[in-house]
C-alpha cells in the first residue's frame, strides 16, 4: 500500500512540476520570444536545461527550507498529506495555465503548505510573514524600477542598443561537415547579434533562478516526508518541467511576450535584467521567489513608463519625431497665433499607452495570480480541517 501511495505521490509531484514548466517559461523567455529573438521550442529547451542546473545546485537548499522551516513540526508531512498538498498545487497551477496566465508557483506552493500547517496548528507565522512581506515588496520594486527606466532612460538606452531585427534568420547551419555548425547569417548585424544573445542569456539566468526556488514547490512535501530522496526527486521534477515547457508553456509565452505589452528587444533586455536581479537577490535571502509577478509588474512598469515619457529639451530642440522648431516661434504669441502645447509637435515620438500597457490583459494577469494561490490555500486548509481521515 505504501509503495502504491509513493507512486501516486511521485506522479502528482511530476504533475506539479509539469505545470511549473508551463507557468515559469513565459516570464523567463517570453520577452525573448516576443521580441523574435528565439522560437518557442528553443525557449522550452533552454528552460529545461537551466532549470535543472539551478535545481541540482542550489535548489536542494530551498527544498529543505520549505519542507522544514515553514512548519513548526515537519512530521505533519505524511505521505498522504504530501500527496494532497501536491494535488492542490498542481490543480491550482493548471487553472492558471489553461487561462494562459503564468501563476506564481511559489505563492501557490507556500499557500498549499500553509493551508496544511494552519489546519494542523503548526504554521510558523514569523517565517510566513517574512515571505509574504517580500512577495509584496519585490513586485513594487520591479514595477517602479522599470517605470523609471521606461520614463526617463529608455529613449537613451534605445539609442545606444536599439536592435532592429533583420529580414533573414539570425544564424545559419553549415551542414557541409559531419556536425552542423551555426554561422552568422549574412544579413545579421553585430548589434542585433549581441542584443539577442544578451536577452537570451538573461532568460537563461531567470530559468536557473527558477530552478533554485521552484523545484521545492514540486518535491518539498515528498522529500520532507522522508519517502523520496533528494536526488531522484530533483531529476524527476526536472524532466516534468521540461515536458511542461514544450507543451503547455506556449500560451504563457504568448501572454508574457506579446499579449500583455508590445515588447521590442531593448525592452525585453530591461525587463529580464530587472526581474532576474530581484529573483537572484530573493534567492540569496532564502525567500521562495515569486518571479512570475515580478516579471509581470516589470513589464507593466516599463510599458507605463514608456507610454507616459515626457519629451526632453534636447529632443524638442532637435525636432526628433516631429517638425523642426521655427526660429520665429517665440514671436508667434505677439502676432496672435495659438501656440501648441509643449511637446505637441513631437507627439508621434511618444508611444500610445494602449500599445505598451494593456489594462484589460494586465488586470486578468493580476487577478489570476491571486486566484490561483487562493485556490491551493483554501483547498488544502478545508480538506485537512474538515475531512476526518486526516485527524486534524
Question: What's this entry about, in short?
Answer:
It is found in: Membrane. With 392 residues, this protein is mainly α.
What does this structure look like?
There is one protein chain. The protein is mainly alpha-helical and 392 residues long. The chain contains 13 helices and 2 strands. It has helices at 2-34, 40-68, 79-98, 105-120, 125-161, 190-225, 230-246, 249-259, 265-284, 291-307, 313-318, 353-356, 359-386; strands at 171-174, 181-184. It has a two-stranded antiparallel ribbon. A hairpin with a 6-residue loop joins strand 1 and strand 2 (181-184). The chain is globular. 50% of the residues are buried. The model is unreliable at 318-351 (pLDDT under 50).
Summarize this structure as a short list of keywords or feature phrases:
2 strands, 70% helix, mainly alpha
Secondary-structure map:
Blueprint: H1 2-34, H2 40-68, H3 79-98, H4 105-120, H5 125-161, E1 171-174, E2 181-184, H6 190-225, H7 230-246, H8 249-259, H9 265-284, H10 291-307, H11 313-318, H12 353-356, H13 359-386
Antiparallel strand pairs: 1-2
Helix pairs in contact: 1-2, 1-3, 1-6, 1-7, 1-8, 1-9, 1-10, 2-6, 2-7, 3-4, 3-6, 3-13, 4-6, 4-13, 5-9, 5-10, 6-7, 6-9, 9-10
InterPro entries: Phos_transporter (IPR001204)
Protein name: Phosphate transporter
Transmembrane segments: 44-63, 75-99, 132-154, 193-216, 228-248, 287-305
